[in-house]
Design goal:
Layout lengths: L4 H10 L7 E2 L2 E2 L7 E6 L4 E7 L3 H17 L7 H17 L1 H12 L3 H23 L5 E3 L5 E9 L2 E5 L5 H14 L3 E5 L6 H13 L6 E3 L4 H10 L5 E5 L2 H13 L4 E5 L5 E4 L6 H13 L11 E5 L3 H13 L19 H16 L3 E4 L3 E2 L7 E2 L2 E4 L6 H4 L6 E7 L2 H9 L3 E2 L1 E5 L3 H10 L4 E4 L14 E2 L2 E2 L7 H4 L1 E9 L1
Parallel strand pairs: 7-8, 7-10, 8-9, 10-11, 12-13, 12-20, 13-18, 17-18, 20-21
Antiparallel strand pairs: 1-2, 3-4, 5-6, 6-24, 11-23, 14-17, 15-16, 19-22
Helix pairs in contact: 2-8, 3-5, 3-7, 4-5, 4-7, 5-6, 10-11
The structure holds NADP nicotinamide-adenine-dinucleotide phosphate and magnesium ion (MG).
NADP nicotinamide-adenine-dinucleotide phosphate (NAP) binds next to helix 8 and helix 9.
Length: 496
């Protein structure tokens, strides 16, 4: 990236920030006059007031999505044609990389280098992956009888609502849009109130790419209003949700209270990073553990937030992790050199600091970080924080903090490590560090989580499914499995 900090700040001042819902092919005035504020968390400055969509806006978006679906302008287009359009959508996302990266960073305070090199290209890759896949998935011919031919085919559901969080706004949207659009559905996307800009902008890009109007609508708004309206809507067939376990539970209720719409839930986590005494590369483990909790300022669903380590190596490992924490200072999100930005909002910062206080009060000790910094900037920054002497019963070991806070829990042996790793309501992901093939396999089997990384962490590809066990949700994002969420199987019997 050749753009300097000063240039990014200039671009931020000049940026055109979308603030109206995108319905039926264009930006429209919201039916409501309510708005919510978007604050740049890097300096606390108000950057935009965005329409807070209500029931009438959501209904208009759903009607547009339904009309497009029933007209067949997308749902009945040959997969090979949808592929071409989605490939173009992916290319245009990349072509608008600079603008999208800026919008993302302005919304959520993540380092511009990450938005530019990570979030935007990754979202484009996601769309391209599903574009490339869609004309390569086949139906089935079932084994029935000689005078019978029985096909098992996949059909799109109809109107999919995608309700997504603020930590990776563009990526989380793309994880829903890729498989939902590729399979022929129409989508109504509701971004988190903290991060509406990129969602709105890509709807415009989708039209430019040739996705017909009505196939992708975006309703910025508050969860308990616009999110709830989608959850309860009688004409929404499916909700693809990523967010907290608490709100995921609401969506199951909304479904039961309305039309039994399908629900896919990618929820929270409290992922263990288990380091066994036979780990043969503590330097790599420490570096990866630090990245696994401090990346995106810890605002990551699969963040490795519980370090579970055997007592024999605890001091040696922790020293190394602390050195990584100390080397990482929060900086201006618009500075390309920054590796750790701000937290998303003042509220989130206050929450994280509250957890740090709770850890201290419960008797754990802060061995790195622990404070708010850069207060003079007006932004919401917290130091990378490491706790030692954490018991798995403490609040900081049980609840998802969603900030740069690592809780270290010391265990005696392998069995205790597995017990502690699984002693959580969550089951999204886990890391295991060991030099023993046998322990690697035993641990990978023992841990109840949708993803287990052995001697690595946070690896991902679109060819690999991602999602949780237990209260981390159900259904999978990424890979061909994600298409299951957005399609129904139909069995067709031909007697002859
Ligand atoms: P959140 O508060 O659960 O919100 C997620 C989405 O739901 C937002 O669009 C939100 O809108 C909406 N919402 C909130 N309350 C609602 C309600 N009562 N009815 C309907 N919709 C409602 O989560 P978040 O704070 O944005 O994101 C952090 C959470 O997401 C963490 O728990 C994290 O672990 C999880 N996450 C999971 C994954 C995964 O793949 N498993 C990935 C990323 C994040 P508002 O923003 O307007 O409230
Ligand atoms: Mg929220």
């Amino acid at each position: 990236m050749t753009i300097t900090t000063t240039e990014w700040h200039q671009k931020a001042k000049a940026a055109k920030l979308p603030s109206r819902p995108f319905i039926d092919g264009g930006f429209v005035d919201a039916r409501t006059s309510e708005t919510f504020d978007c604050i740049f968390p890097g300096d606390g400055r108000l950057v935009a007031r965005v329409a807070s969509c209500g029931d009438a806006d959501v209904d208009a978006a759903v009607r547009s999505a339904r009309a497009a679906f029933e007209a067949g302008v997308w749902s009945r287009v040959p997969p090979v044609e949808r592929k071409k359009v989605l490939m173009r959508f992916s290319e245009l996302i990349l072509a608008n990389r600079e603008e999208l990266a800026l919008l993302e960073t302005l919304n959520v305070g993540k380092p511009i280098a990450n938005s530019f090199n990570g979030d935007v290209p990754s979202a484009a890759n996601c769309i391209a992956w599903y574009a490339e896949a869609i004309d390569k998935v086949y139906g089935e011919v079932a084994a029935t009888a000689h005078d019978m031919t029985t096909l098992v085919v996949r059909e799109p559901l109809g109107v999919v609502a995608a309700v997504v969080p603020w930590n990776y706004p563009l990526s989380m949207a793309a994880w829903k849009l890729g498989p939902a659009l590729a399979t022929g559905n129409s989508v109504v996307l509701k971004p988190a109130e903290q991060s509406p800009f990129t969602a709105l902008r890509i709807a415009e890009i989708a039209i430019e790419a040739g996705i017909p109007k009505g196939v992708l609508n975006v309703v910025p708004g508050l969860g308990h209003i616009a999110g709830k309206a989608l959850g309860l809507h009688m004409d929404v067939d499916c909700v693809g949700f990523t967010g907290s376990t608490e709100v995921g539970a609401y969506f199951m209720q909304y479904s039961g209270q309305s039309n039994i719409k399908r629900i896919g839930l990618e929820l929270g986590g409290k992922s263990p990073q288990v380091v066994l005494a036979d780990c043969d590369d503590l330097d790599l483990a420490a570096q990866t553990i630090a990245a696994g909790i401090f990346a995106n300022a810890g605002q990551v669903c699969n963040a490795g937030s519980r370090l579970i380590v055997e007592d024999r190596i605890k001091d040696k490992l922790l020293e190394k992790v602390m050195a990584h924490a100390a080397a990482l200072t929060p900086g201006d999100p618009l500075d390309p050199a920054t590796r750790l930005g701000s937290l998303v909002t003042e509220e989130q910062m206050t929450r994280v600091l509250g957890y740090i206080d709770a850890g201290r009060a419960d008797g754990a000790s802060v061995v790195a970080g622990g404070r708010r910094v850069k207060q003079e900037s007006g932004g919401f920054y917290v130091e990378p924080t490491v706790f030692d002497s954490v018991a798995n019963t403490m609040k900081i070991a049980r609840e998802e903090i969603f900030g740069p806070v690592l809780s270290t829990i010391t265990v005696r042996d392998f069995d205790e490590a597995m017990t502690v790793a699984n002693d959580t309501i969550y089951g999204l992901a886990a890391g295991v560090w060991t030099g023993s093939v046998k322990n690697a396999h035993r641990a990978a089997k023992a841990i109840k989580a949708g993803v287990v990384w052995v001697n690595c962490f946070d690896r991902g590809l679109f060819s690999v499914p991602f999602g949780g066990f237990k209260q981390s949700g159900f259904g999978r994002d990424k890979s061909l499995h994600a298409m299951d969420k957005y399609s129904d199987l139909k069995a067709i019997w031909f007697a002859h």
